[in-house]
Fold this sequence. Notes:
Low-confidence stretches: 109-118
Radius of gyration: 36 Å
Largest sheet: 8 strands, antiparallel
Number of strands: 26
Strand content: 15-25%
Shape: elongated
Number of helices: 30
Amino acid sequence: MKLNQGYHCLDIVESISSLETSLESGLGVDEAAFRLASHGPNRLTEAKKKSWLIKVLAQFKDFLVIILIIAAVISIVVGGDWLDGSIIIAILAVNVIIGLVQENKADNALRELKAMSAPRTKVLRGGAVEKIDSANLVPGDIVILDAGDYISVDLRILESVNLWVDESALTGESVPVEKSASVTLPADATVGDRINCAFMGTVVNYGRGRGLVVATGMETEMGKIATILNQTEDAQTPLQIKLDVMAKWLGIVLVVTCAIIFIIGFLQGMPLVEMFMVSVSLAVAAVPEGVAIVTTMILAIGVHRMVRSNVIVKKMRAVETLGSATVICSDKTGTLTQNKMTVVKVSDEANVHKLAKIGALCNDAMFAAEGGKIIGDPTEAAILAYAKGLGVAPDARRVREIPFDSDRKLMSTYNDVNGKIVMHTKGAPDEIFRRATHYLKGGVVLPLDDDVRRGLTVQNEGFASEALRVLGFAYKEYENETSIDDIEQDLTYAGMMCMIDPPREEAAAAVEQCHKAGINVKMITGDHKITAIAIARQLGIIEESSEALEGAELNKLDDEQLAERVKDVNVFARVSPEHKVRIVTALKASGNIVAMTGDGVNDAPSLKRADIGIAMGITGTDVSKEAADMILADDNFVSIVGAVEQGRTIYNNIRKVVGYLLSANIGEILIILLAIVFGLPVPLMPTQLLFINLLTDAFPAFALGMESKEPGVMDRAPRDPKDPIINGVMRKTVAYKCIFLAIGVLSAFVWGLHFYGVEVARTLAFFTLVSSELLVVYAARTERFVGLKKELFANGFLNRSILISFAILFAAVYIPVLNPVFHTVILSPTQLVMALAFSLIPIIGAETSKLLKK
């Protein structure tokens, strides 16, 4: 037996012969067992799961975290300062635990969403039909297909009776495809055009048939997609890249600064060991150890907020990526559209009830016993729903029928209507026109001549140009059952119904909001170009048809040409999974941050290749959910807009925290550096520096990350993906704050040194520095000048955090047992007032700088 990947090119006899099986009896039991051992179970190979050890180690791969580890080791081993080092290690441990817990929660949520049950398949073996686990199917098996069956292998169709298969999960085609066993196809026929084959992951929508298993597991078309998925590497998010760049930049500054201070102190004759300890304390001060944990907490809070908005986040650090997205590539079927055929137009409103009656009676769809859901072919279900909306019921007894077939392109039923037999016919409009001799107009039957026929043809072509699926309807009356002639001629034409899988009602507004936010929306679908263009126009994605490109045209473009075309093309139709990956890659090559939405198996590789993949929680396949970074629990495109807004807010808050912590920590370096340069004693002790960092990094920085969205967050274009977190504006802001912080603290230190001695001076510097940083956090809430307005104190959590932090500060100064720990003395009322006065200098300077920039 030799497997052939081109079974669509072979006829039935050749296919059976190639796989050495029997059309009448199928495989024998022993032969099936042998082939199962040879080919393995019919399962897709999943990517190897990460072990707990790998997950733990992954939490330590950031450069910033590495710097913290080095600082902790130096503190403990060289400086002998177990307190400082232990606290840093404790912070790292908390960061790891939070990351692991969040990742575990996301995995559990995904498992609950999948809720998978092993499918079973009817198979012919040893001349008998039996139902077996789909995992046990092998090449050469004969599978029995009925309406509603899930197809779990790739098949060459052997028998087809009105067999229609829903392939939307694989190809993106919104309308079921009619299958034909008798045809053979050219070798270059695409998956979507192989009407003599059926594929894993699709569903029998209507009719019955038999199929020859030609591929199982990873050899199926779905398996090929899974292979692409497993070979597609996860990309770093923009936030990870920017934090890593920031950490490396900070590390260089840290090493250079400590070296300079060490050299200055050595040249001034200070003891070598003392200068080394000063350098170590500066290392602790320079590293904003709060950035890693506060960033993680901000992202975790964002994750929980998104859950309330029906967005499940699998990768916490990917939360902000959607906020920086410049392009959203969306699948059409089920994402931008309802994935439900709907009658949207009829050719003649005057005949609407007659039209609905024919559609309801010439129809095999039916209402479910409970819930009123319609079961059956999507097109027939749409017709039945339309009739129900008009109060028309299929209440006439069916006497007999002529089933639909692809040669006639018609279906007819004979119904007993008030004692008279009426043939109701629906099908291709051109066939209806050709067979009709009369037509119904305003309740009057008129002769249908060639002029009328040409007019109807033009009308039909007009509907088709709007990407509508058009069916014609006609009828023919008989006196009784004995006069039935089974001839679909001499019909009376009643009209046409136009159907489409309509856009989601809320999708157009969501697309408009994306455009307002500077985000380009591109539709990528396996559906036909004309349909894609029509839907895209309704949603405002395109204005001209030239903005659309088909997969066949895409094949003619190399990567460089495609990178140019994707800038202007917003609709891609009849595309394969490989095309989708190429499109996303081309967009990323142009500097875009790409979000990809989708629900089908065919979306999985591009979901993983994108900066952020968004799968559908309800209609999404398990493969797409596994590949995605986010899952929309309600399948609603509108939820993406909320996620974009949340992502932008999260990124803004992270920048606020980074700016605040950098200004505080670099300000501390500047204070010590200037003191040493001017020959002053060291104003702050290592324990004080760590206490300050812990206090400001904990409550205030965390509260700053809880800020709600600022006005106009969705009214501006996405930030430049290449723009670092610490951009030019932040550098100036940090510089202003550092300078004013140094002025305030050193003024307090020099004043105390002059009047009270070094112990009081250090306590004054310590108190002034902490209180200054607590007050400056209000200036960090926004880059706009606010002043003493109510808006300044809108963050209640921040207000409470500041009060708690001040209480801890006063405890460190005024509780005697803590004085030796923090190297402080109790301040007199005069000293306290002066310290508070000096503390106002930094916030006044920060707000003044905003006015100057404005």
